[in-house]
Design a protein that fits this description.
The complex is a heterodimer of chains A (78) and B (430). With 78 residues, chain A is mostly helical. Chain A is built from 3 helices and 1 strand. The chains are: A mainly alpha (78), B alpha/beta (430).
């Protein structure tokens, strides 16, 4: 358990996929509800969670997209 | 009308007519289309029905129909539109001409449906529809590939649905034909091209149309292209009721192109709400924990204060004060109780006097009684008290002998005497 936690810290936040980030956020919320967690640990988890939420927001390119139509002959963008 | 010179029998004329039909080249082999009605399957294994159009009908007989497994599989029923191939002949027993069928096929849509079933059975057999091959759709689609007509309704519907759910999704369209000649080839190429191009998911489809219009999506080539595609494929052809081979082989089937967007593209507004909720829940969680910690700290501080020397001294002082107060109060109560007891003894003098008087009176009575039994009183009446030399009382004659000295106490003094003789009087003898 403690090994798992230490492994998590070693992962760079950039390497985490959106799916994993959301799962981790759910996990963090569960862990923060745990009565036995120390204040220090819960503060660490909170900080990490805030970073994950920011990552999840930043991951989505918020620019309006125009339809790309491929050339049926070449398969390239027109 | 004049009677002819030769009279024929019914059979002769019937045979003649049947022969005319049988010899007719056109009637010998033809295909007739119409709708089945009055179908009947007697135990003989033959099949009888009427083939009709708006105005007319022709009786159809299919001898040995039950032995034709390919045809019994069609499950022919009233209302089916079919093409019957055979020859027209005459049944002379009741002068009926009928179509003796050699083959029956479903007409138009029926035919297409039959083909669809054949392809479906073959591909199912090959295992292509097995759920184990279905790829899961990605949760966060950011590039959405679409294979459909650039001019059809489907692409418009898809764009509208995407802009409503998540305008940040990039749509990449491979414009294909979606019906008629060349459609199958362009759809296959579209799937392959988008797979190479790199999108998160590919929607293959078109809007509604006739069975004939949609039929190209039953093509084995398209099924194979979908099956081979590394990117998850969603088939969205026509409407809810349209079922095509592409639906069976795709990783996911959506009833319409718009619904394909709902099924594949995540709702960005729900996503943002979810992230907000995460933040809120985490903040609440940490707030709760800090609050708990602060309460614990307050509690500990209070405990520590209680253990401090100052507090302990104060508590001892308070205990001394408390004890003093208790003592004072008890002393007061004792004094007060003594007071009330003293008050109760305020009539003591009188009572003592009474007691004394009564004792005195009783003493008087007793003195008189005592006087009555006093030996001095007896002596005054002439009695003497006899004792030996040592002053021991003599009560019987046996206790002295001749010569013993006696002392007799009488009123007014003593007489010293000597025993001359003792005489015992037996009282019992008296």
């Amino acid at each position: 358990m403690s090994e798992k936690k230490s492994n998590k810290k070693e992962i760079s936040i950039d390497e985490i996929s959106l799916e994993d980030a959301l799962s981790m956020l759910e996990e963090i919320l569960d862990e923060m509800d745990d009565e036995d967690i120390t204040l220090e640990d819960s503060l660490k988890k909170y900080e990490f969670g805030v970073k994950l939420v920011k990552k999840c927001r930043d991951e989505i390119d918020r620019a309006q997209k125009r339809l790309i139509e491929l050339n049926p002959e070449t398969g390239e963008e027109e | 009308m004049k009677k002819s010179s030769h009279i024929y029998s019914v059979t002769e004329i019937s045979d003649y007519i049947r022969n005319m039909f049988d010899q007719d080249y056109f009637l010998g082999n033809l295909s007739v289309c119409g709708e089945i009605s009055g179908v009947s399957r007697p135990s003989s294994g033959h099949l009888y029905f009427d083939l009709k159009d708006q105005n007319n009908l022709i009786r159809v007989t299919f001898f040995g129909f039950s032995r034709r497994a390919d045809l019994t599989a069609l499950n022919l029923k009233n209302g089916d539109k079919v093409v019957v191939t055979g020859r027209v002949s005459v049944y002379t027993k009741n002068s009926v001409y009928q179509l003796n069928a050699k083959d029956i096929s479903l007409d138009g849509e029926g035919e297409m449906y039959k083909k669809y079933l054949e392809i479906k059975a073959a591909l199912e057999e090959s295992g292509m529809f097995d759920p184990m091959y279905k790829k899961p759709l990605p949760r966060f689609v950011r590039k959405l590939g679409v294979v459909t007509s650039a001019k059809g309704r489907a692409i418009g519907d898809i764009q509208t649905a995407v802009s409503q759910r998540n305008p940040y999704v990039q749509i990449v369209l491979y414009p294909s034909l979606v019906q008629g000649e060349g459609a199958v080839e362009t759809i296959v190429r579209g799937i392959e091209t988008l797979d190479r191009y790199g999108v998160d998911v590919i929607i293959v489809g078109r809007g509604g149309g006739s069975m004939e219009d949609l039929f190209c999506f039953n093509a084995v080539e398209i099924a194979k292209a979908i099956f081979a595609c590394n990117t998850p494929v969603v088939s969205a052809v026509g409407h809810e009721d349209d079922h095509l081979i592409s639906d069976e082989v795709a990783d996911h089937r959506s009833a319409t192109p718009s619904l394909a967007v709902t099924d594949t593209v995540f709702d960005i507004y729900e996503y943002d709400d979810m992230l907000d909720d995460f933040l809120k829940d985490m903040k609440e969680g940490i707030g709760r924990r800090l609050n708990n910690a602060s309460q614990s700290a307050d509690y500990m501080e209070e405990k520590l204060k209680e253990k401090s020397p100052g507090k302990m001294l104060q508590r001892k002082r308070e205990r001394v004060d408390d004890s003093m107060a208790v003592l004072t109060s008890r002393m007061k109560s004792i004094i007060s109780s003594k007071h009330s007891r003293i008050a109760r003894f305020s009539h003591l003098d009188e009572r003592m006097r009474n007691v004394f008087e009564s004792k005195k009176a009783r003493a008087g009575v007793l003195a008189e009684k005592l006087d009555g039994v006093s030996p001095l009183r007896r002596m005054a009446s002439g009695y003497a008290f006899v004792s030996d030399e040592k002053g021991r009382g003599i009560r019987t004659p046996e206790s002295v002998k001749k010569g013993d000295k006696l002392r007799l106490a009488l009123k007014g003094g003593f007489i010293h005497a000597r025993v001359e003789k003792t005489e015992i009087i037996n009282e019992d003898k008296k």
